[in-house]
Structures are given as C-alpha cells and as structure tokens.
Amino acid sequence: MTYPIEKSTGFGFFRGRVALACALKALNVGPGDMVAVQAFTCSALAEAILSIDAVPLWIDITADGYTMDAGDLEKKLSQASNVKALIVQHTYGFAADMDALMGVAAKYHLPVIEDCCHTLFTRWGGKQVGRFGVAAFYSFEAGKPLVAGLGGWLRVNNPHLYEKVAELHKQYEQPGLFEQVRTLAMFIAYSILYRPSTFWAIKRVFRMLAKYGIVRGNYNTVEVDDAASTPTLDLSDFTKGLGHLQEKTVFLRQRAAERSISHRNRAAAAYARNFPLRHDARAENVVLKYPVLVPKKEATLKQAEENSIELSDNYSTPVHPYEGRELEMARYVMGSCPNAEKKANHVVALPCPVSFNDKAITKSIAFLRSQI
Asked: Which end of the chain is least crowded, N or C, by CB within 10 Å?
C-alpha cells in the first residue's frame, strides 16, 4: 500500500484549511482572484479562499452523485474571468470524475488541488486520489479517516510547486505546547469514548466545550461588516504548522487507517444493497460516510438521536454550516447550485467507522428504511 502522507512529498499544517490556503498562495492566487470549488462542502474551504482575499466560484454537484459536475464547471468557467485554480473534492470518499474534471482544467489551464479530507485510499482508474492534481490536502480532525485531534497535510506533486511551498512553510510557527497537549487530549478522548452509540452525546459535549473555548471547534464564524460588505475571519489558525505531537500521531495512525479499509468497505457494501447509488466502474471508493436522501431530514435526525443511532447531517447547507448572510459573504448565491441545495435539504450520512459492527449496521439500515 502506498501512503499519501509522506514527509518526502508534503508538509504539515495546523488544519486542512491552512494547508489549502498555503497551496493557493504558492500558486500565486491572491486578492480578487477566483477559485472554482464545489458547493455541497464544508465552510473550511470558503475560509481558506477568503483568508487570502480570493473569491470562491461555486460549482454544482452532479444530479446523481455528490461530487463536482464537469458540465457545470465548464459552463461557469466559460462565463468567468480571473479563475486561477480548481479544487476537486472527493465527497464522503467517493472519487470525483477525474477524467472529465482534469480535462476541463487542462482546457482552461487551471492547476488542480484535490480535497482528500474524506479519504486516504480511494482510487480512480487504478490511481490513488491525491495524485492527479498539483497538490492535495488532508484533515485529521474527528470524523476523518485519520484522526489526530487537529491537523492538516499538504501533499505536493509538482516539483516547482514543492519548492515554493517549502519556502512558504518556513513562515508557519509551531503551535504552543499547551495547544499541542490540548489537541492530543482531544484525540485520546475521541479514541476512548467514541462509539456509534455515544455519537450524539459526544457531539453535544464537544459543541458545549467549543462554545466556551475549551476545545477547538470545527467551524469559524464569518463576521459580517455591513458597512463594508466584506467578510472578516479569525486568521490566527492560518499562521500555524502541524505540532510535533500531532505529526507523530499522524504517522503512527496512518497504518491503522489502512487496516480499516476492509471494514469501511463492508459497511458501505451493506448500505449500498439497501440504498443504492450510481457506481462508476473506474472508481475504487473507500467510503467515510454513506449518503442517503430522506424526505424529512430534521425529523429523521431527531429520531436517530432519540434511538442512539449515529447519523450525520453533512451537509446541511451548500456551504455547511453557513446560512443567510454568512453564505452571502462566502459569495454563494442561492439558486446557483440547485443539485447541491436540494441534497443539502434531504441528505443524511451513515458512518463507516472501524468500530461499527454488523449489529449496529443492521440497526442503522432498519432505522433509515423506516424513514424513507
């Protein structure tokens, strides 16, 4: 097995979004430049783009999947100017159509950065994702394929870009010892306490601790300056590299992530038999979460919590969890990505974690079948 996280090809950062921002800077993306990125994603991508005063160009997902629609990408690129980069997301661990997307990127001379935060080992056409573009970034937060508390990684596939990133990386400071120990404590607590049956309790506690600043939350709020109509972000994360303690954890856990592949695949196969999705024969997916559309999303999530069944709401908006003015500040226009908007209103995601047993899988399937 070839591992994607290697010191010889990459650099560690405080979070995955920080790695993305560094990649964009190394590609000379700056104020006013546009970056094409899919809707139906996490606000971390918007944060990274906005942190360098660039502008997201939101692209819809396919009608029958959860990754970028090459047709919508081409349409919007033909109507836009000053687009400097393309971010391709492998949502839930399902490979994007790299043949089509790389073809469009080549036509418009755009460098491609792959978002591999949901997968380490998925393949497209026999090639591991993360190796198609000039770079790929990864995240090590809770709920990701490789958990280290916090952390991110930038894999660089282009030698010239590698040199530029190496020079930029020198500017990133080590997190303080307290920050590193707190992050390590988050990882240890997650490893000990997480089970499918404890998912909702952990989620409630985590949100409470994040509210009071005891742990780092997943999302940073976009402050809106109504007078200037510009977004204001807390950029303190974007000055930090990956802590030494987290880096050691990442390399220790990468082999364990490989061993989890068969278990994740077994869970995904069970879900697929009951909730089939279109499968592309070119893809060998290692799925982190399995999406299912339900008619009444909020009611389904509430009942799942009452029955202690792990079920995620990712993504609840086209740029999760932004709503209203935050979406506007992320330059998202409602109606511009109808497939992403529709699925955000109806999707719930079943987990494919290593601790999930057959009994829990059967229980989750039975519950979700009752909701459709």
From this structure: N
**What's the pTM value of the predicted model, to 2 decimals?**
0.94
Residues of the domain holding 329: 267-369
Q: Which helix (H) or strand (E) holds 137?
A: strand 135-139
Number of domains composing the chain: 3
79 within 8 A of 357, measured Cβ to Cβ: no
Instruction: State the Cα–Cα distance between residues 122 and 99, nearest whole angstrom.
Output: 15
Give 280-307 pLDDT, tens digit per residue: 999 999 999 999 999 999 999 999 999 9
Same domain assignment for residues 148 and 49: yes
Do 132 and 209 sit in the same domain of this protein?
no
What lies within 8 Å, CB to CB, of 140 at 6+ separation is 16, 146, 147, 148, 149, 150, 151, 152, 153, 246, 249, 250
**Closest of 47, 53, 14, 130 to residue 320, by C-alpha:** 47
Q: What angle do CA 26, 31, 34 make, to 5 degrees?
A: 80
The dihedral sign for the CA sequence 51, 178, 253, 316: negative
Output the six-digit token pair for 301: 């999530």
Sequence letter at residue 276: P
